Amino acid sequence: VSRLGFLGFTFLFFALPPLRAEKLDNRNFAIDTCCPTPNEIRLAEERARNYWTKNGARFGSNPVYLAVVTSKIFPSEIQLLWPKLINSETTASFFSQRRGFSNLQLKGIMIFDTRKGRFVGNCGFISVDTPPLGSVARFDDYIARYIGFGNWG
Amino acid sequence: VGVKICSTNYPWVFIQHTTGSRWKSQSLWNPDISRGFAKKVEEEQERGRNHGEGRRPKNSTNLKTTLWNEECSKDFAISSRQAPFTSVKARVSFINPLNQEKTREMDSPVGPPRLSGLKFTLVASLALLTTDALFAQNAGQSDVDALKTQMNQMQRQYEQRIEAMEAKMKSLESNANSGSILNTRVLTDADGKEMPGKSQPMLDESFLKSLTRNFTFNVYMRAGVAFNGSGGAQGNTTFVMPDNYVGGGRSTSRLGNENDFYTELSWNQAHILGDSPDVADVSFRATMQAFSSPVKASAVNTGTPGFGIGFVEGYVEMKNVLKSAPEITFWGGQRFYDRWNIDPEDYFWLNTSGFGVGVYNIPAGPGTLWIAWLGNNNDNLNENGGISLFNQANDHVGNLYKQTFDVRYKDIDIGFGKLSFVLIGNYVKGDTYESSFSTLVGNVTGVVKTQDMYGIGGGVIWDYNFGNKSELRLSGLYGYGATDFQGNIGNQIGAVNNAWSNQFNRFLVGKPNTVGVASNGDPEVAVNPVNRNSEALATAMFIWNPSSVFSLGVWANWEYNDNGTNAVGIDNNANIKVASGSRNIVSAGVRPVFWVADNIAIQGAASFSYIDNVRSQTGAAFGRSGEEGIFTIAPTIKPKGGYFTRPEIRLFATFAAWSNSLKGTQASGGNVPYNNANANYGWLFGSQMEIWF
Prior knowledge:
The complex is a heterodimer of chains A (153) and B (693). Chain A has 153 residues and is α+β, with helices and mostly antiparallel strands.
């Protein structure tokens, strides 16, 4: 029993921390770039600040970036959309409802720097699929915590 | 202050200077000094040779001058006219012992003067060195000043350019901020002066440019041709279960089983009011639909049997309407509205598409809210043709009108996938009208009286994303009454017509019925089947792209439909039969794709379908159950990248087999040569293209 107990303890010791560890979705959730309007940026920045004020302690400082849904993008705003969709790893939700861009929901996402309390730039990324809320994922060169509109949690 | 000129390497001058005990090396750009210095050294060399004390360099064309100086030699041993940075290399070579020999070879093409002329040489050299060194220092200082001046000039130029760009940006912003596509432009004469009274609002150039910049074109198209196992044309043959899904589609597999030429061509224009953040962001989309079957001629047009053309979409979307929530989007017109399908069957099980208005992308907690109000009607009064006297006198309602209230709460993150909730309500105002109904004795003109029809239903859709465009999707929906998760009113009118026909058939065969006589003498039946309808469905679809050379689509569906009335029909032996108004269809299939080269794949499909009660009113299958299997193999030219990559150019062979109970039905293709009472299998061979972008 003691041997089994030792093995069990060893398994739990090594298995549980990875299970509890926060996973990084390293797929690129950006299929293109976009530059939302100043009004959209202001509103989203405000949401991100409020969100971080409420939840910053829970998540900690790693990563330092938040990915915030800032705007809606019409499919017709994107040139050469099809190759961007077919060559991305993160467009499954579109293809599962395939045929026709009327169903395609594109999100404009900007990266918020929690250290500086503002977005890292005036432009952001366009995403089709999004990672689970609160999870850490990659948006082009940024590793960021996805918070959606920032109106939850 | 001490300065020593160590060597020159035209146009560089290498010096050492000191203000105390430490000497520092420095190189200066000065062609005059270097040239002058070289000349003096050559004179010294010539003088030494005249005294029989010099020796010629081995390669005098490559080496210009070298001064051998005790203090400087470690840093500036050689200089080459052809390689301005040779001295730097030489310094490195001192660090690397392996390069010593090479360095020595290049060293000292001019040797030091011999002792006999040394005294004079040293005096002259020191005099020259001192003079030139001081001059060099002054010249170096002037070089630095010149560089500073040049840099200052460049800085001023850049500042001027930036100012000009900022002014231009402000000008453009002020134009864009005008908030209208009709920016007023002041017309000027040839001298650039404003022409009084000539100012006209006109289209701004930026708007015209935006027409092309923000324009996109999308296409869905499939086009193919095939022949059957007997060598004849495919015609209208498609192997589909009878009493098919309410949402249409194949209820089998679509690969190698489509008989039509079909296309949707979409034109999109974004930012119709311009890019300014102060105006609503408007996008327009129109989709033209064209289809043709069974004729496959070199050209199909409106004169070709089976050809149709029309518009399935024409709508406007507007965002940035509410400044406090610019992402909320309003739409109006006719559109495909958030429809969901099983693609390998082309089965749209949730499709409230049609005319209407709506608002979506409303942030609400972890999801978004979608609200739409859609309407749909057919011409059941024949308003567009010869409307009957009875219907002309009907001042109650007009054509039946189906209203759909569609509320969805979408993309709710639950940690392992996303949930979407659907809630749909329907209402159709009842009416009394005259129409033509299919009965056991042919078409009969009669009057139908139906009550108001209500319906409500909903369900949930769960999506789990595995990455690399792999996804598992499960859904369950249940609707009651007029809610069948389709926007079209055709199913409700069909249910009313079926109920009327069933009552009249019962009258014909002497069974209890509710047939009466209308005011114009027509048979009249009061029916209300829709409020007893029910529709339940469950779907599963799994798209898997595990590697670059293999993809897989798997699906399974169950649909239950009750049309609210018993069906009265007749079999092949002319026996009157009564069947239940409900039926179940279960289908499942798999469609694997193997790539044998980068753009060449072998794909196949296998599916099985079962129906427990065929409600069609004639034929041997009436009231019976049955099953069908279909198998397709299709070598395909198809890009790598996953299940949904397109275009595809396919050759296919399709085999279908159906149970004896379904002989002669749509399961047999619904067309010659397999729709006879004997055939229970059939073949299709052909080619097809499918593209989508």
